Amino acid sequence: MSGNTYLAFLFRYRQILNISLTVAGFINLGFYYFCGDSCLYLAGTVFGVDLKIWGFLFLSAFLVISILKQDALISLAISAALGAEIFLVGWQVVNRTYCPYCLIMALIIAVLFIINLNKKWLMLILPAITAGFLVLFLFFQSIPLKTSSLDLPKFGNGPISVRLYSDYFCDPCQKLEPDAEKILYELVRKNKIRLVFVDVPINRSTPTYSSYYLSLAQQEKSLDQILHIRQALFAAAKDKITDRQELAKYLEDKGLPKVTALIDQSAETFQYIKKDEIDSTPILIIDRGNGTETYMGRAKILSTLEGLK
Predict the structure, then answer these.
(1) Domains of the chain (ranges plus CATH)?
(2) Can you tell me the mean pLDDT for 167-196?
(3) Cα–Cα–Cα angle for 218, 222, 224, nearest 5°?
(4) Of the residues 30, 96, 168, 241, which has the fewest C-beta atoms closer than 10 A?
């Protein structure tokens, strides 16, 4: 397809492409809003309003001006959106944590920008890109998860540091931890490892579960009791319990002490997640003092733990 033919194609079908890509953006945001648990701690606000809400508002406005064929407004809006996406993608790169929904939206915005690129509105495009970037740079705030200064419970005095990253609602994690517990218990008892469980808040309800883990761990400090707590929390997640009061009753029915005041997630959790560059679960980190080793997947993690005996 020649350049002129390509431009003619875009001119003829640009409105259809704009509307189709905007609808794709709505679908992507819908999945992000209802299913984007893996992006929980990538959330953020601008002027106190969640980015997802801004996304819905932008797409709604863009759909209207596309239907009305307001070319100047289209160029202005999509250029500003491109500037905002440049900031957001850069923010993910700097933090080395990526949200697939955010990246798909960035791709949609980039394609829309290319489709609607028009030299006629060049004087609008560059300032709008700059303005979009600056608004995010100046007013974007990541949503902080509540954290406490409390250290995570650690077990054993062995020479090897072992960190097991999991999420209570992660199906592979639910299958892994019961099998790993016996091996971990033996390794700790023989003082071959220093063990810490790190809860990764991928699911929206995991921060609450982590708070219960920390709160109960302050009352039940032995590894036997800690494993019992984690077994109960994994069982509750498997039963898809997300209501806090229902979870509290479930844990009490399992014979665990009543929690009167929940402890916020440990700030150490996020220090470990950042240090080990964790973006999925389950993951096992082995630190022998001269660097870390990363193992993923149930079979690999279990075989690695067996090898530490």
Answers:
(1) 3-142 (1.20.1440.130), 148-307 (3.40.30.10)
(2) 93
(3) 125
(4) 96
Tokens of 232: 């109960």
Inter-residue contact 148 to 210 (CB < 8 Å)? no
Residues in Cβ contact with 72 at an 8 Å cutoff, skipping those fewer than 6 apart = 121, 124
For the full predicted model, state whether its pTM sits above 0.85.
no
Nearest Cα neighbor of 305 from 183, 154, 181 is 183
Tokens 């390509």 locate to: 6
Return the CA Rg of the chain: 24
* Res 43: pLDDT: 65
Q: b/e per residue, 197-210, with b = 16+ CB within 10 A? A: bbbbbbbebbbbbb
List pLDDT tens digits, range 206-235: 999 999 999 999 887 788 899 999 999 999
What is the tally of helices (H) and strands (E) in the chain? 11, 10
pLDDT digits (tens, 9 = 90+) for 246-279: 999 999 999 999 998 888 888 899 889 989 988 8
pLDDT digits (tens, 9 = 90+) for 108-149: 999 999 999 887 888 889 999 999 999 999 999 775 555 567
Rounded Cα–Cα distance for residues 295 and 309 (Å):
17
